Amino acid sequence: MAIQLEGKKAIVAEVNEAASGALSVVLADYRGVDSGDMTALRAKAREQNVYLRVVRNTLAKRAVQGTDFECVSEVLAGPTLFAFSMEDPGAAARLLKDFSKENDNFEIKALAVGGELLGGEQIDRLAKLPTRDEALSQLAGTIQAPITKLARTFNEVPSKVTRAVAAVRDQKKEAA
């Protein structure tokens, strides 16, 4: 059954809104994946705040116009699953990379970040980005390291003095 014009406009508007607020997008070919696996993928995507949508290529080209992801228009061919990362730039890449390991028929076509189109083979560049919490903990560790080292240094001075005094005392006892 054909989608009426109003339905097409609604789809374009919805995908455009998602693309406008997204940090990255991953495109995949889902042919051959059964519906049970796709349902599980959609559930995981909702948990990780990843917007998944299958859109006709002509509608997708219209939807990404004027966004950072306009560059994906050149790779739109065949059935395409769009996965937009809404909070964490690597969330969609990690999700689809893990899913493709479990499903041989699932193929990652391309990805885009900040207006730059990357091939599907470069999924690791995006998937290996730390999550927000991981990045914050790494930053905190980096900031805390000099302070910790300074505290250890200050603590080491009295310890050295105590060991030196104990060594002198032991020497005097042996000499007496």
Automatic annotation (TrEMBL):
Name the CDD domains on file. Ribosomal_L10
Looking up Gene3D superfamilies in the UniProt record yields: 3.30.70.1730, 6.10.250.290
- Which keywords appear in this protein's UniProt record, sorted alphabetically? Ribonucleoprotein, Ribosomal protein, RNA-binding, rRNA-binding
Q: Which domain of life is it from?
A: Bacteria
Q: Which GO terms describe its cellular component?
A: ribonucleoprotein complex; ribosome
Q: Which InterPro entries match?
A: Ribosomal_uL10, Ribosomal_uL10-like_sf, Ribosomal_uL10_bac, Ribosomal_uL10_bac_type
Offer one example of a GO biological process linked to this entry. translation
A Gene Ontology molecular function term of the record: large ribosomal subunit rRNA binding
Q: Which Pfam families match?
A: Ribosomal_L10
Give the family, as the similarity comment puts it. Answer: Belongs to the universal ribosomal protein uL10 family.
Q: What does this protein do?
A: Forms part of the ribosomal stalk, playing a central role in the interaction of the ribosome with GTP-bound translation factors.
Entries under NCBIfam families matching the protein: PRK00099.1-1 (NF000955)
Q: Cross-referenced HAMAP family, in alphabetical order?
A: Ribosomal_uL10
Q: Which PANTHER family match?
A: 39S RIBOSOMAL PROTEIN L10, MITOCHONDRIAL (PTHR11560)
Q: How does it assemble?
A: Part of the ribosomal stalk of the 50S ribosomal subunit. The N-terminus interacts with L11 and the large rRNA to form the base of the stalk. The C-terminus forms an elongated spine to which L12 dimers bind in a sequential fashion forming a multimeric L10(L12)X complex.
Q: What name appears for this protein in its UniProt entry?
A: Large ribosomal subunit protein uL10
The source organism is Halovibrio salipaludis
Per UniProt, what is the name of the gene that codes for the protein in this document?
rplJ
